[in-house]
Amino acid sequence: MSHDTFNERIARINNHSGGGRSNMTRTEGGTATSMYSSPSMVGETPTARRNIKPMLMGAVLGMVGGTVAAGLENPAMPWGPGFEYNEMIVIPALLALCAGPVMAIAASAMRARFPSFFFFAAAYFPCVIATALLDLPLF
């Protein structure tokens, strides 16, 4: 009796939400699971290629930010001291430098939910600091 009632309820749910088609899929173990129970596809494994784009974007933007920040104090750079718009570049360049460690800390805390942000920050932080230090006229 209860088995028939259960099957009738499942049939009504399927007819109501799926237009009469079944929303159940079979897994390797033989059990039926809902298609909406897992956000990832069955059998899909994460690859390293998926994280290349955020890492490259973080590295490139980190190098650009570090070069701009280091050039503010370097008279050899076109936007260095004496450039009439130097004051307009100071705040964005310092924000780019300070964003590196802040993003690294935030991304490490949110790694499970936002893996692309983690890889972006993991590439941005060392690139912005290293490029700023390499471009400074230390010698």
Chart the SSEs and their pairings.
Layout: H1 2-18, E1 24-26, E2 32-34, H2 52-71, H3 86-109, H4 115-135
Antiparallel strand pairs: 1-2
Proportion of helical residues: 55-70%
Strand adjacency order, main sheet: 1-2
Structural class: mainly alpha
For the sheet with most strands, the description reads:
2 strands, antiparallel
Portion of residues in beta strands equals: under 5%
Give Rg in angstroms: 26 Å
Through-space gap between termini: 88 Å
Order of helices and strands: HEEHHH
Low-pLDDT stretches: none
User: What is the number of strand segments?
Assistant: 2
Please tell me the overall pLDDT: 80
Described by the principal axes of the CA atoms, the overall outline is elongated
The DSSP helix count reads 4
* Quaternary structure: single chain
Number of domains: 2
Name some characteristics of this structure.
139 residues, mainly alpha, 2 domains, two-stranded antiparallel sheet, 59% helix, 4% strand
Describe this structure in words.
The chain has 139 residues and is mostly helical. Helix 2 packs antiparallel against helix 3 and helix 3 crosses helix 4. The protein is elongated and about 85 Å long. It has 4 helices and 2 strands; from the N terminus they run H-E-E-H-H-H. Strands 1-2 form a two-stranded antiparallel ribbon. It folds into 2 domains: 33 residues; 88 residues, no CATH class. Helices cover 59% and strands 4% of the residues. Strand 1 and strand 2 form a beta hairpin.
